[in-house]
């Protein structure tokens, strides 16, 4: 009996080896899985993601004589949809971009041949206060579903005029031409 068991074991061993060899697979490809898990309480409304804010055309004479005097401008909003206040109760908005060379709290103009002596100031319409570049706003309380945050942007003088001894302007601190600035915003959940 033991002699016959050895024959069957030897026979099974060869067959099992052939079956195991038939089941060997080669790696012919790969699948990459990507995604993200966030604790964001809302989604950014598609109309707020990429937008253009027209500040309009102003004259040099529309600016007051002091650095910080503003002219022109327009309002804009950032809207959040599908908000849930289960995990996060508050939100702040932070704007970033190229800082002005004179005042780092202002958004500087970018590109070649930009107007000299001018930057862009962003203001929080809720408080009327300036939102300094790279600094979050004060917190907004989130409401369920939709939230809209209102801001304004305006031209700001960053250079004074050159005057002669009689006090007459001999050279304007502000140039003329096209204005272009680019800002990004981050929504900070708290």
List the helices and strands and how they pair.
Layout lengths: L1 H21 L20 E2 L1 H4 L20 E14 L6 E8 L20 E7 L15 E2 L3 E13 L4 E2 L5 E3 L11 E7 L1
Antiparallel strand pairs: 1-2, 2-6, 3-5, 3-9, 4-6, 7-8
Description:
The protein contains 2 helices and 9 strands; from the N terminus they run αβαββββββββ. The chain is of the alpha+beta class and 190 residues long. A 4-stranded antiparallel sheet has the order 1-2-6-4. Strand 7 and strand 8 (169-171) form a beta hairpin. The radius of gyration is 32 Å and the shape is elongated. Mean pLDDT is 84; it is low at 5-11 and 14-20. Pfam families: Fimbrial. Residues 1-26 form the signal peptide. Residues 31-172 form the Fimbrial-type adhesion domain.
Reported for the largest beta sheet, the result is: 4 strands, antiparallel
How much of the sequence is in beta strands?
Answer: 25-35%
Query: Mean pLDDT, rounded to whole units?
Result: 84
Tally the helices: 2
Query: How much helix, percentage-wise, in residues?
Result: 10-25%
Query: What Rg do the Cα atoms give?
Result: 32 Å
Shape verdict:
elongated
Distance between the termini: 78 Å
- N-to-C order of helices and strands: HEHEEEEEEEE
> How many β strands by DSSP?
9
Sequence of strands across the biggest β-sheet: 1-2-6-4
Ranges where pLDDT stays below 50 over 5 or more residues in a row are 5-11, 14-20
Q: What structural class results from the helix and strand content?
A: alpha+beta
Pfam family, one: Fimbrial
Protein name: Type 1 fimbrial protein
Signal peptide: 1-26
Domain Fimbrial-type adhesion: 31-172
């Amino acid at each position: 009996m033991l002699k016959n068991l050895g024959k069957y074991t030897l026979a099974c061993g060869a067959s099992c080896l052939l079956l195991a060899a038939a089941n060997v697979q080669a790696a012919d490809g790969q699948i990459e899985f990507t995604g993200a898990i966030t604790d964001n309480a809302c989604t950014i409304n598609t109309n707020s993601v990429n937008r253009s804010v027209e500040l309009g055309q102003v004259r040099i004479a529309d600016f007051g004589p002091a650095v910080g005097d503003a002219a022109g401008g327009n309002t804009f909003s950032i809207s959040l949809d599908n908000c849930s206040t289960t995990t996060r109760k508050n939100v702040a908005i932070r704007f970033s971009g190229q800082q002005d060379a004179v005042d780092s709290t202002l958004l500087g103009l970018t590109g070649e041949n930009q107007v000299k002596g001018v930057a862009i100031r962003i203001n929080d319409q809720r408080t009327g206060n300036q939102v300094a570049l790279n600094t979050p706003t004060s917190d907004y309380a989130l409401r369920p579903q939709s939230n809209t945050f209102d801001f304004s942007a305006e031209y700001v003088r960053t250079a004074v005029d050159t005057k002669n001894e009689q006090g007459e302007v001999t050279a304007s601190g502000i140039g003329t031409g096209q204005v272009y600035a680019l800002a990004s915003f981050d929504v900070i959940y708290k």
